[in-house]
Amino acid sequence: MAWGQFSVTFAFEPHPAPVTASEREARLVDPAFGRVFTDHMAILHYSEDKGWHDGAITQRVSLTMDPASSVFHYAQEIFEGLKAYRLDDGGLALFRPDANARRFNASARRMAMPDLPEELFLESCERLVLTERDWFPAIEGGSLYLRPFMIASEAFLGVKPSAEFLYMVLASSVGAYWKGGARAVSLWVSHDYTRAAPGGTGEAKCGGNYATSLVAQQEAIRRGFDQVVFLDAAERRWIEELGGMNIFFVFDDGSIQTPPLTGTILPGITRDSILTIARDEGLVAREEPYAIDQWRADAQSGRLVESFACGTAAVVTPIGRVAGPDYDFAIGSGATGQLTARFLDRLTAIQRGRAPDPHGWLRRIG
């Protein structure tokens, strides 16, 4: 592939001692999320004088980096998350990787990092999946989770954008996020910590956003809840998102609502997919602010009948209980709601190639 004056290819450098077939089979019986990694990874280098260069699908190894590398000191790094699926006809497919490629570059621009041509993003993911096709778990809900990421690798101590970067893609064998089906989770509403502020990095998929959410997540778990949900930084009133998932509200008239993308919320690809599916089915799908007091009142009055979170890893997660410093309320029956279950079924059917794909979301690669 040629990009301006630069030519980029992904050489194949096979692992000299890959995991044996029997060992791989044992690891794939019940893989925990993000714990089982494949033999290979994709890697690509960037420098201001060469642009993108030296691409390879190579063995997954530990990195050797200078301790002065910019990523360690100034946190210039971004990442993505997407899944590859083995379809019922034996083929392989990625779900909406073009959307991940666009969001990756949007994050890069916010973090003063170089754009990665979308075709290179797609090729790196496709080539890695095809190389690791034997790592798909043969279990219900099994898939390959891909983690593309970019880090600043120039060694210097000074506050400026790095001139050198590494782009890599890891592949991890995963099973269904929830064993035995999705269960309703409980949420603690953080009134002490916020995830993002206007003008910040809330809409970029960078590690700093997740690092700042961890102390609030720890508090939620310490109080006996599964996840934390954040409010806006200005008024501490408007619901934004969970530590790693977008959120939806379902009302008794069949309409759904999710907070709008105003720069402080990650533009989730699962979020966008659910909005599209809902509108395809004739449902009213609003992108409007929703206050914590309103959520509580609507849940107690019965106007709000379901809530759910969504993201790449778990796809759709029902919410059964919400609590804060001086309130605690149930969502509907406290279990998975009908529309929540329907969105989960519709979306996973498209991802698995078991339902029509009118928007061309599946990218078949083999």
TrEMBL record:
Cofactors (names): pyridoxal 5'-phosphate
Keywords: Amino-acid biosynthesis, Aminotransferase, Branched-chain amino acid biosynthesis, Pyridoxal phosphate, Transferase
CDD domains cross-referenced by the UniProt entry: BCAT_beta_family
GO biological process, one term: L-leucine biosynthetic process
Enzyme Commission designation: 2.6.1.42
EC class (word): transferase
Role: Acts on leucine, isoleucine and valine.
Protein name: Branched-chain-amino-acid aminotransferase
